[in-house]
Amino acid sequence: MRMNEGRIGVTGAAALTSAAMITNGLFALDPEFAYAEGNSAYIALPLSAIVSLFAALALFASMKRSNSADLYGHLETSLGRYGALAASICIMAAFMYCAAEPMIAFLRVLHRLVYDGVSYASILFFVFPMVVYAAWKGLETLSRSAIVLFAVMLASFAAAILAAAPDLEAYRLYPIMGDGSGHFAFLTAAQTLAFLPPLAAAAVNMKGMNGVRSAQKAALYASVVSAAVVGAAELALSAIYPYKVLSGLLMPLYRINFLSLSQSYLIRLDKLYITVWLGVCMLSSAYMVFSASHLFARCFGQKDVTPAAASFSLILLGILLISVKGGRAFLSETHRALVRFGWIGMIVPVAAASLLRPGKAGRKA
Amino acid sequence: MLNGVLNKVFRFDRGDERYELLETEPGEPDPLRTRAKEGEAPLRKEAPFPKSADEAYELLKTAFRTDINRDLVLRRFTVGGRRKALAVYMNGMASDEKINEFILKPLMTSETTETERLVLEVIRIGEISPSRDLKEIKDGVMDGLTALFLDGGESCLMLETHGYEKRSIGPAQNEQVVRGPKESFTESFKTNVEDLVVETRAACGGNNVKLAIVYREGVADPSLVNEVKRRLARADIGAVASSGVTEQLIEDSGLFPLPQILSTERPDRAASHVLGGRVCVMVDGSPSALVMPITLFSLMNSPEDVYMRRPLGTVLRTVRYTGALISVFLPGYFLALALYHQGMLTTEVLSTVMASRRMVFEPIGAEMLLLLLIFQMIREAGLRVPGGIGQAIGIIGGLIMGQAAVAAHLASSVVLIIVAASGLGNFCIPDYSTQIAAAYFRIAMVVAAWLAGLAGMLSASLFALMLLAGMKSFGVPYLSPFAPRTYSRSPLILRGGINCKNTADDAVNARREAKETSAE
Amino acid sequence: MKRVFVSLFAAALALIFCGCLKPVSLDAYGYVITVAIDKGKEKEYYFTFALQRELGGENIDSEGGATALACEGDTIFEAVSELEGNVPYSLNFSRAHFIIMSRELAREGALCDFVMTSFDSLKIRPSALLVISEKGAGEFAGGLYSNNDANITKLQTALALDKEKTGMVSVNSISRLIEYNAAGCGDFCSAYGVYDDEIITDAEQKKSESEGENPLKDVETGDRVGGLKSRIVGAAIFSGWKMTGVLSREETMYLNIALGEFENGNVTVYPNGENEATVLLAFVKRSVSIDPFAKGAIPAKVTIELAASPHLKDPGITEEELDDYISNELERVVSQRIEEVFLKCREAGSDAMRFGTHAVKRFSAARAWEEYGWKERLDLLEPVFEVTIVNTDKYYSEDMQ
Question: Where are the domains of chain B?
């Protein structure tokens, strides 16, 4: 048995979940979609994190009732073998989406804005092995690294926002909520695809997190912290660029200090910030890959998570290469659809697992 | 067949066999640091005072664990050939001469057997006090007193027989402090162990080298003590000649660059760790003690931090950590900026560096690596040659060669300053092995920065971080108490208070009694 | 151990195939500090790039802090590639602090082309300051670094400081230009400069002296010597991407007051119609209210509060006269001047006072704002400027009494 779970505490679990939620919330955001009809992201994103928290809490409550050891166990008791398999596939797909989407954004930024004339493959060569290694090492290593990196990430966000503070202007936030409740609600729902998978990952790795109570606590802390961080970052960003500009920018957060007339060293730390954020993103991707592998191993009764981790890492590599190199129309259309409607694929299995009563097996347990 | 090959390459079939010092408490604390409820420590059951010398013999044999604690002497004799008695003392702590000449000899030849007359007329010791408290008796014996039990006596006589060996104990060479004790361990085994509760044993391998395993019973986690013993027993290759070799034989990972066992030549440092629930191993013939388990933060601590007042200790630690970070990251960071991210440097810096590099022929990365190598060479040469010449080498290497290298366009002055600053930062690290490990990391950062700028440095840093995060020293996570968090928050960068009820060694699962008394 | 060596070997092999990320040593670059764009003769544009010279360079005293490279091209990329083929280094734009464009090009809206195509590709930071030059942008750039400034990047900071001290400069970066054009909430204004070839710089003076000439012999009394050949003389106002007008330094100050970007400055007043006095002005607060939904004209009210204190005065003016003027007349004069500036901007089709940034706050939906068409309704705007000036010196003296 080598599931690489170990035992992690609430802080580690919260740091890891929070890092993944923040990474997905801020960097997997499609600016074209988020700012298409005005700027409401700074309200919609934190709200989405809270909505995801409620969904996760419902799931945890249901797991407590069914006395399941982890998410797969719960899915099996609630939905039966085949239902659990189908739901697991959906959840694994969502995990892989969360692993790939922010990485793609970072690769694009590194390729276009940070390095001159460098191929995607070269950047991947330096970045990707660490994702694989982290996924391979397992939950303990991931959570401890997350605690360290999380502190650095918070410091970098604070520094970036503080440096941008003199250029913040309130008029850029208007019209408040963009085009009203329709798009706002849609954005809130769509962004659960960014926030819910890390919370579901906590359910998958519940055994390593010392049971459902610890996982629940970690999810609560992670959601509140991520909502605050994502909200603050988006608010600062919205007060720096109007929505029309934001919708056309590749990773707007990278350019948060681009307005300042001062040319001092401290104002020009954007490449350092993006390096820190990339580090957190790599960790988050590794966590998602590990969680997908863990769920896969549970689905198919494997006693060792590492072969699945190796396979999912390869799948991630494929997704990254196709996404950054593809450029085909159908790919961008698929991506658009995924960004807008992918959340349904995640929320349905989670809702089903939360609402359906445990089957015979569950009742016995 | 493919499965077999894959298993062989990736070792899929390998189970996780590492020893883990698992938490006895329900997980680590949550971010709000709400403390989980712990059961109260059971009260120690007090044994009744022995009525006879034989009873005292049996009682003390168990209490002192004489099966493993070989230094305790339980001497049975008769007073004047009529009344049974028992003298108890600690070899190395009490003076044999005093005991033989002024206690045993007069008592054995005494005509009287009455306790009062023995005290007044026979025993020729200055200070004598009666005691019925077994804990007090035990502490007294540990402190060098001799306990005298007489058949039918209502109390035991505590006789002042302190007798430390009076040979000189030199100052610590590698762990110097401004304030605090200067003394270091010596090569003499008995002198070293005098303050500590010890188990002695011969090292496996037949070379008859003695080892001492020192820990506080009832404080150190028994599973940790057993693990140390198990590893020592496993190290059966007959190569144990020094603490350095022992360290390599019992550490968790031989390839991990940072030490997983603290080697200290300072008794106060070793004692502080033992008080906190760690285990110390001493090897006869080695002037340093091995402390385990340790974390990265204990390696970054100097004994001085505790001797200084709290704000000063914190400042010292902050400077030390800053120095260490500069030492590891500055050369790589500068190189990354110089090769890939020039826009981050201000125009003044760019212009200065360009001017200083105008005639330097080698690439800036090679220049950096060359200077780092030369720095290591100067350092190594300075260490190996005798004192005065060593200093001269430092001056020649540092000043004259540096000047000459810049004048000859072998190096630019800016890169020279960066290498010097990183070298200086390296010396802020208190532990010698950690200093060398930091040099490895520094070179790795430089290479990574040369290859891929900040992204390369990030990958190298993440790799290092994950190595640290995944590493355990005798089952204790290497980054605790920060990652994972423990109830105790020390040792960290901010120094904790000394008087407060801290839980210094929560990470090693020390029992509660120790958590409330130790501080670092 | 075997596994470690295998892993290292595999890593080395992969490195050989993927390569490192193309490092270029910092001394292999020429750092472009200023990009000046003029109309070309044979090609569309004439680019002048001012490169920061190394500090401590041998010729620094004689030629100022920069080296100029110039080339024609239809795009900036064409010019850059041509130049890079002829110099032993590559051009690096990551430290570009100034974008200077000639008025002729700015009026044609050439900034749009330039900004949209080159910024991300050349890694120019959009915080670079935009300056419109009255005549040749290249000459203006040359004038900027002709005064032996070892580090000409400080000029950007110096201009920002000048704005703080005098309020007579408009300091705006390219990012603002992009923002106003995208958001449609206002129009851009930039620094406007002139180049004066007749001014003799320190370097020229020293050079002539060393050759035994007296460069000052022909200079008429009162002409500038030893100074900058390039000077900022006001602000260029834009309508969208096109420059449509020019404001003088004094008008720029009133524009800044109306925008709330003014901090300190001074005005010259004539309390008795003859003798002049200088009054220091300091910004206190400003508020704007606007009703974009009003039928017919769009009413707006700008309330500005300033603090004033007399600085220098002619002996022919009494204290009372000056105090009286500051309390009663100055408010009217300032509000009148602001209104004049507003009218000038409106005439140029520019919302340089950025009433749009206040109008947008009244809209509850982004689409409604976009459909409203603020720029088209600019002519309907009828603002009222209410200026209150507090004579701080008078209060101090009354308190003391």
Answer: 53-159, 189-294, 307-476
